[in-house]
């Protein structure tokens, strides 16, 4: 297992995109700072300048290429031959991306601390009481934690899709559509009025997790689920998609 | 040129992505019909096709060029063609014709789906205040989309040559499609002094699909109809030249 992890880490570290991504994240966060406006300082800090959306964007691109890279260059056979079991291959890739997810979130928090002193928004102290009667720094850290869970769900989904579909373009497009339009599709499903109690647990609804955490009032109407229910649902779907993805990976003939 | 076109058409025909994309367009239009109750806006936007066509075409265009690099057949392209620019142009033309085909498909489907989802509530020849009949507005919107697709195809070829990762190009195209207009507007609002220069930014050009029939959009884009058309053509030419230079320089 250690060797598989080292292999994946080596491959990952030698890609240019891996090192470029934090800078892209910073640029996008600065842009968000300008668009949200001068007076939304508290919301900006809590959401780390909308870094959840940008981190998901970067992770989908990296995640979609991590499998297709092996399939296209026919390196998948060597990979399977050299490792003790298939679960090691799948799990090591998953853990590396999860680690990178943590890394990006860490950068997002660091950039937020730095950007707060920039002239693009008004200054609010760290201990201002904001959502859930907690100080701002606690809000930010908990949002980052919750978002870690939400992005792990998206990564698991991307892994499942790339094992199912060979075509890189289709996997990327599907993942982006699920992330950016999942909310709308789930809302229209729930608007039909019938079977709401069952339909509200659909996986597309789980993409609302981060947005509902930092803006409870607006998003509760859309998702019909409480915060902790969304968390439980997300964890459940992570397990389901991971198992499904691994089963498909195991049975695939290369 | 004729030979290049035939070769590219053969390669394009044998791919499965264009077929899946046409299917996706049909499904998306049906989905729009199912979830929206505003019959008039459905007809005017061709059941959402105006929003989806640029995305589909960028995905198809960048995959078409990326395919050559992925399977290492670029060297064949350079060796076997008498003029490198003609083979680059042939690819562009084939993808653009696919775009034209999609626009025609969208038009046909709009007429069909209108009968199913909207019925007789709104008629094709109903007039909207000083904008013309609904049929006229829909046709001009689709024409605007055709124009914008030229910009899109040249841009997708240029992007895949710059970024080299197909997934990233598709991500960028989705971001531009959904956030582009808002981004450009935010930019112009933040730096209001530089409006005369900033209004020519490429993200602003997406508004050509709506602006030709709805003069309210002139407030958002800060460009008159002739200006925005010139802008779209200008950028298409710029992307064509830049893309070709990158194509020439890139090692096989």
TrEMBL record, chain A:
The keyword Disulfide bond does not apply. Keywords: Membrane, Transmembrane, Transmembrane helix. It comes from the Bacteria. The chain crosses the membrane at residues 20-39, 54-73, 94-117, 137-162, 169-190, 228-249. This is ABC transporter permease.
TrEMBL record, chain B:
It comes from the Bacteria. The chain crosses the membrane at residues 17-34, 46-67, 88-113, 133-153, 165-183, 228-247. Keywords: Membrane, Transmembrane, Transmembrane helix. Signal peptide: none annotated. The keyword Transmembrane helix applies. The keyword Transmembrane applies. This is ABC transporter permease. It comes from Lapidilactobacillus gannanensis.
């Amino acid at each position: 297992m250690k060797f598989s992890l080292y292999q994946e880490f080596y491959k990952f570290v030698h890609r240019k995109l891996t090192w470029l991504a934090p800078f892209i994240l910073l640029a996008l966060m600065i842009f968000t700072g300008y668009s949200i406006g001068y007076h939304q300082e508290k919301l900006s800090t809590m959401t780390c300048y909308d870094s959840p959306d940008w981190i998901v964007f970067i992770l989908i691109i990296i995640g979609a290429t991590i499998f297709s890279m092996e399939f296209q260059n026919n390196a998948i056979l060597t990979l399977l031959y050299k490792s003790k079991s298939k679960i090691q291959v799948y799990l090591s890739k998953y853990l590396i991306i999860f680690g990178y997810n943590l890394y990006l979130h860490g950068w997002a928090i660091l950039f937020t601390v730095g950007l707060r002193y920039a002239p693009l928004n008004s200054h609010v102290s760290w201990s201002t009481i904001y959502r859930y009667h907690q100080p701002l720094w606690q809000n930010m850290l908990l949002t980052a934690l919750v978002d870690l869970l939400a992005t792990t769900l998206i990564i698991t989904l991307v892994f499942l899709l790339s094992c199912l579909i060979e075509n890189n373009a289709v996997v990327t497009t599907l993942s982006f559509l699920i992330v950016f339009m999942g909310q709308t599709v789930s809302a229209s499903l729930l608007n039909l009025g019938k079977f709401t109690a069952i339909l509200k647990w659909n996986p597309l609804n789980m993409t609302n997790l981060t947005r509902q955490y930092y803006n409870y009032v607006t998003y509760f109407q859309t998702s019909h689920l409480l915060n902790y229910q969304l968390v439980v649902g997300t964890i459940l779907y992570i397990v389901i998609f991971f198992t499904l993805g691994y089963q498909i990976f195991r049975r695939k003939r290369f | 040129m004729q030979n290049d076109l035939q070769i590219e058409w053969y390669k394009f025909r044998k791919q499965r992505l264009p077929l899946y994309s046409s299917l996706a367009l049909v499904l998306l239009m049906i989905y729009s019909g199912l979830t929206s109750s505003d019959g008039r806006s459905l007809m005017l936007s061709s059941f959402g096709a105006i929003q989806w066509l640029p995305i589909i075409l960028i995905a198809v265009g960048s995959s078409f060029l990326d395919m050559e690099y992925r399977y290492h057949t670029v060297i064949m392209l350079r060796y076997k063609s008498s003029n490198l620019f003609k083979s680059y142009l042939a690819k562009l033309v084939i993808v653009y014709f696919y775009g034209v085909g999609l626009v025609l498909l969208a038009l046909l489907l709009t007429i069909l789906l209108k009968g199913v989802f909207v019925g007789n509530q709104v008629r094709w020849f109903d007039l909207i205040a000083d904008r013309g009949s609904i049929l006229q507005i829909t046709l001009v919107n689709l024409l605007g989309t055709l124009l914008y697709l030229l910009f899109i195809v040249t841009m997708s070829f240029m992007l895949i040559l710059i970024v080299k990762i197909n997934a990233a190009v598709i991500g960028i195209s989705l971001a531009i499609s959904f956030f582009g207009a808002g981004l450009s507007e935010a930019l112009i609002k933040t730096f209001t002094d530089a409006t005369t220069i900033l209004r020519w930014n490429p993200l602003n050009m997406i508004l050509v699909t709506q602006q030709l029939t709805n003069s309210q959009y002139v407030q958002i884009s800060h460009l008159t109809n002739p200006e925005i058309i010139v802008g779209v053509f200008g950028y298409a030419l710029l992307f064509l030249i830049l893309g070709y230079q990158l194509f020439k320089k890139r090692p096989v």
